[in-house]
Every structure is written in structure tokens, then in C-alpha cells.
Here is the input.
Amino acid sequence: MAGQLFTHYFLTEGIQATSDWRNLISQSDTFDSFRDGIRQSYEDLSHAQDPNEAQTEQDLIRPVLDLLGWTDYLPQQATTGHEDIPDHLLFLDAASKERAAATSNAKDRFRYAAVVEESKRLDVPLDAHDKDGTTGTGTPHGQILRYLSTAEIESDGRIRWGILTNGRVWREWQNINPEGGFDAVIGNPPWDHIELQEVEWFASRSPDLALAPTAAARRTGIQKLRDQGVPLAAEFDMAKDRADTLAKLIRGSGHYTLLGGGDINLYSLFVEQAMTLIKPSGLVGLLTPSGIYADKTAARFFQSVSTSGRVAGLFDPVLVDRSGGEERRVWPDRHHRQFDMTNDSHLFRTAVQLEVVIARPSFGMKRNAAT
Here is the structure.
């Protein structure tokens, strides 16, 4: 999904050159009535002291929707605190609204809607940033992109528009999907965390720090290196800054709204991007850790694909080493951090080190053996 935002120039000047705008203002009575209605709504709300979001919706946003002709809309309310549910769904006709209203599950209503709308308190900044200074998924900007991602999945691509407003500024996003798309995306993405892992980073550089009994003890040791002017501390700080900057860029991009939270793993970005590259009937086949369905940070993504019939199968592989004449299961390994096996940490494991007790098969999974 690509969130497309009209520029400030278009909204203030460029729109006046469009044929639709010229046709609208040529109907002076209609335009004057529309303008007067909006002005009255703003004046009514201006008398309230510090109106909250609910009051802004009731006294301004819904009247404006009515004036725009969107009389067929439904206020939305999540059934739990963890659902991605926008404030309003807008429908093309009364029949679609009635079918949606008869649906008890809030997410099932997406299939009947045409537009998602998210409201904010009057004049609240729509470009508000997270505490770390980035425009992440928890900001108004990030919210509407996240809602559009959810709506795209739940509506099978029918919902193409999103509106974000604080009553005074109205922004419109269009979900533009490429025609066609790939039949399949298949690959073996890298398994590595964006966030710098202190234990792995220091494993070959300062084993004593890597083996510190607690994270607090490790941080104390790192600070001592800084105080002593040891170059290793500067190298660590530079590596951590690079990792933190990359994480901010990923979260602020708006492209990874379902899997771009928490401790980001590179493979999850490949998964979400792959889902945007295929056509509706396309296939994605990627070799990933089981975290894609088991990790808490992947819960929203996996729920969205597993409840919409988009999961064809999950295969939990076991790699078998037959080089010595006898079969020896060498993967999955007993180490929780798979990235210990990458060049970064200089900790490649031998077949003997990787020998493990066979993991219990997961419910609903197929376990395949490969040489």
C-alpha cells in the first residue's frame, strides 16, 4: 500500500484549476450553502472551551461529512483495546451501510465500506511525532496508514481511500495498488534484528562484557570504557546509533505498519513488503522464523492474514546432516538467537554444537525433513 497525500499547494491553490472545482463554484447557490454550513459549524464549536475529540466529531466533523454528501457512514468502536478500528466508515449507499450495521464484528464491516476516516481533536497537529522524534505508527499520520493497511486486507482491496482530520485540516490518502502484481514472491530473507544486540556485538570484541551477568552490569562496563576513552566504546555507540536511525526510518516510512513495531527483525519487513507486491491471488513463500506467527509483535499481521483465508500452509523444517553416514538433525538449533549464526558475531556453530533434542511439532504445522 502506498499512502498518497495531496500537497499543501494542491489543497490551497492547485485544486482551483481542476474542472470539478470550477463546476462546483459555478453552482453559486450550492457552493454558498456548503460554505455557510461549514462556517456555522466552526463558529458553534469555537464557543466551546478546549473541545475534546468526541465533541469535535459530533459538532464539526460529522456535520461536514453530511454537507459533503457522506450521509451514509457509521461511527466505529473497537470491541477490544487492541484492534485497528478507525473512527468512521463511509459507504457509497444506504444498502451497504445497512449490511455493515447488521454485522456485529467491527472488522467485518470493512468489506462494505469505501472510505475510512480518523478524527482528532480540533487543531491537534496531524504531523505529531512520537517521543523519539519520529513520525511513527502511533502518531495521527501513522494511524491512518495503519488503518488503511488493515482496511485493505479486511476489504480484499475494496477500500482505497482514507481521511484524517482535526476538524480544520482535512487530509486524504489514496491506496494505489499496481495493476496486476506478481504471481509469486519466493525467498529466504535475512534473519537479523535491527536493534543492536549487545551480547552478540561484544561476543567477539569483549567476551567479558558479553558474559556480564545482567544487562545493568553490561551497561556499567560499557560506560567505564567510555570514561576511559577506549575506542571500542565509540565503535559500539556508532553501531548503536546506526541501528537506532534505521529503526526510526523504518517506523516513519509508513510502509511497515503491521510488522514495523517492537524489536524489528529484517525478515518481517520482507514478509510485509512481499504481501504488497503480489496480486490478490498471488502466492508468498518465504523461509522465516516461527516468530511470524508466534511473536507478540507479529500478532496483528498474522491475525489479518490467518482470518482472511490468506494462509495456505505453514511448514516447520528440520535440517538433517547425512555427511557422516548417519542422519543427524542439525536445525532448528537450541540457541534462541538465530543471528548468532551470522558473520556479524563471528560465532558460526558446528554441527555438533547445533545438535538438539527434536522440538515438539507445533499444532497445525507440517514438519518436513530436508538434507
